[in-house]
Every structure is written in structure tokens, then in C-alpha cells.
Amino acid sequence: MTEALEATRRLLSYIDASPTPFHAVAESQRLLEAAGYSELSEAEAWELIPGDKRYVIRNQSTLIAFEVGQLPPVRGGFRLIGAHTDSPNLRLKPKPEFVKENYRQLGVEPYGGVLLATWLDRDLSLAGRVLVEGEASPRLLKVERTLCRVPNVAIHLNREVNSKGLLVNKQKHLPPVIGLGGKDDAEGWLHALLAQELGIDAGQIEGWDLQLYDVVPSVVSGFDEELIHAPRLDNLASCHAALEALCSVANTPAEHGRVVALYDHEEVGSRSAEGADSPFLASVLERIVLSRGGGAEDLHRAKAKSAFLSADMAHAVHPNYSDLSEPHHMPRLNEGPVLKTNNNMRYATNAVSSRLFTRACQAAEVPLQHFVNRSDLACGSTIGPITAARLGIPTADVGNPMLSMHSVREMAGSQDHDAMTRAMSQFLTLV
């Protein structure tokens, strides 16, 4: 097995262990601790020394890890990489249980820009966190077995579906079927199921944050194992690459600080206490500066010497829809990381902010591709512009190319993950 394919298989294991942002942070925590990182609490005083490797978690769904530089931040600045732990999905409503036409169903709400049709006729289950009476920290839950399905309607009852397309009403058509039951089964059975899974009494459950996930494992595919199929590549692939890059340089001290921020809620605008539009990262940087003996002036000077990499997946050219790509900027699978640009600042990249990542790719000996959206299509965005505006740090938007973005299962190249990780390692190392 090649080194690149080994890196990809580690990514797929990370994805399969992370059906929700809560699980992604827990898995990230495990990887960091194996590399010598230890947890900090926001509620306690921070005493840091050069070379310290620490991380802090907010809401169980956002994690910021950092290595303290050998120089004070006012002299060394920071190299930062940001990604996000959330992906589009279907999430349970507070009172989800209902029975209709003798089918037990769950009320769900789409989270983010879900490609709705891809969630139909899939083997689905539940994952998330559950609050248990008398316990300070919510418990993580991942039901391993298939629980439910959102059944499609037969073509005999929707004759024009192939000519006019499938129209999915978010309220009427998305509730999954989880079983059969009558009027007496209208409520209480979900609590019973969760209690059974957790080994507690149903009355101990105080609340939950739960979502559906596809139980089918991620796979390497293709004629020469050149492709991967997996859920949540957007954006767990970037999270994993950033973590592996940070851990790979753990034994290589740097004058500057190294930071990886994995945010929740990017898919819904980042405006939360744990999103990229919160003061979380700014607070962490300030506390690092303060702990190293600096003040407000030192913080501003440190940020002026810093660089931020916003890592989120990129659109590869699609063989069946190539006309939707800008003809002179067509990223291809397994041809390296992508630098994303938008002159209306949907991405934060400019010529100056992209220079360090371009150098990083050259140092890692990986090719660099470029993406620009068609001028007649609306362009998506990332945490890049949000972070750049909040911190005032030069920011470049990058990502690996992929197909089927926001589908229940997505597709990418098996060689690009290693290339991105090596480029990120150089980004965290270069002066």
C-alpha cells in the first residue's frame, strides 16, 4: 500500500468514527493526545511555556489545538489552519416521535444545504449526544445498526419523476420510517430506544442533540483504487488533514505558534458561540499572548505577523456537468490541493495571502490547482472571509477537489489527502 493510500485509509477511519461534530471532536481529541497534546479549560487560568502542546474544546463540537512558539508571539506570530466539523444532514426535532398510517416516524429538520434526494432510500441510524440526569457531560451516542429509512415513492405513483425531477418537500417527505405502530405508540418509544442504547432508565434522559447518518462505511474505490466514497468529506477531510499536519510537526520546534481551529456550524453561517464568527479563536490567541507576558499591543503585532489557511473542500470538474465549471479553472481529482479565489470575497484569497501556501506546496512537492466559480453562477463561501474579517489576519482559502458535495455520500481522489496534509505541514513550518 502506498503512503498516500495509507493516509487516505486513516481519513476514512476518522470519518466513520465521526457521524456528528461531537464525535469528530472526540476523535480529534484522541489523535491529539496520542501526539502529546493535553486539554485546557476555558474556565481556568492558562500558564504556557514555549513548546506547550494544548487544546481547548467548546460545546463538544469545536476544538482549537495549538503549539506555543519558541519566540514570544509578538516576535514569531502564528500559523493557523481552520476547518469545520459539521456537514449537511437531517436533525431530529425536539418532539420527533409520531405515528402516521401505522408507520412510526421521526420529525426531522434539514441542517445546512442538504442535497435532499440523496437521503432517500438509504440505510440510516441515529448519532449525537444525550444529556443524562446527574451527569455533567452529555454522553455520545452512535447507534451502529440500521434504524430507519426515508422511502421514495414508487415511479408508478410519480410517473414524471424522471422527466421533471424529484421535488422533495422538507416537511412532508423527509420524516424517516423507523417502524410500525398504532395510536398507542405515538410517543415514548424514542426515549426507550435511547435508554436501551445507553444502559440507563428512560426517565434519566434530559435532552439530546441527535441527527441521522448513513451507516454504510467509507470505501476506497475505482479501477486503480484512485477514488474514495464517503459521507462528510466536506469537511472532515480538511479537519483530518489539519490534525495530521499539526501532529506531524510536533517534534519540530518553530519560532511561531501553530494553531488548528475546527469549528462547528459553518454550514449554517457560523454565527454561534462555537462558530467561526464567535470570538473563540480571538480569545485563544489573546490568552496565549497574555500567558507569554504580552499585552494588547503585543497581540496586535502578533496578528500582523500571522497567516491563516481556511481549509474547505473544492468543486472538481464533473464529467457529466463540465459546463458548470469555469472553463479555465477546472480542478481534477488526484491532481493536488486547490487554491480558491473569488473577487467578491466569498473566499478570502488574494495574491499576498496565497503566497505562503503556494510556497508550502512547492516545498512539499505537490501540485497546486486553482478554482474560480463561473461568473454567471452564485459562489458559496467558507470560514475564510469570516475569520479574516474578525481577526484581521491575511487568509487564503484552499481545499481538496471533490464531487457530490453535500450529498449523503461524497466522492474524492485517494491521492489528494496525503498531498494536502504534506502541504499543510509545510505551511505550519515555513517562516
**Estimated radius of gyration:** 22 Å
Task: Indicate the CATH class of the largest domain.
Answer: Alpha Beta
CATH superfamily of the largest domain: Zn peptidases
In total, the number of domains comes to: 2
Strand tally: 20
CATH topology of the largest domain: Aminopeptidase
Beta-strand percentage? 25-35%
Helicity, as a percent range: 25-40%
Any overview of this molecule?
The protein is an alpha/beta fold. It has two domains: 1-87 and 231-428, 3-Layer(aba) Sandwich (Aminopeptidase); 89-214, Aminopeptidase i, Domain 2 (Roll). 27% of the residues lie in helices and 25% in strands. It has helices at 3-16, 21-34, 73-76, 161-164, 189-198, 233-248, 280-291, 296-304, 355-364, 383-391, 416-429; strands at 38-40, 53-58, 62-67, 78-84, 89-100, 103-111, 124-132, 139-142, 177-180, 205-214, 219-221, 227-230, 257-263, 307-311, 314-315, 338-340, 369-371, 395-399, 401-403, 410-413. The strands form four sheets. It has a nine-stranded mixed beta sheet, with helices on both faces.
Quick rundown:
It is built from eleven helices and 20 strands. The chain has helices at 3-16, 21-34, 73-76, 161-164, 189-198, 233-248, 280-291, 296-304, 355-364, 383-391, 416-429, and strands spanning 38-40, 53-58, 62-67, 78-84, 89-100, 103-111, 124-132, 139-142, 177-180, 205-214, 219-221, 227-230, 257-263, 307-311, 314-315, 338-340, 369-371, 395-399, 401-403, 410-413. The strands form four sheets. A nine-stranded mixed β-sheet has the order 1-2-3-13-4-14-18-16-17, with helices on both faces.
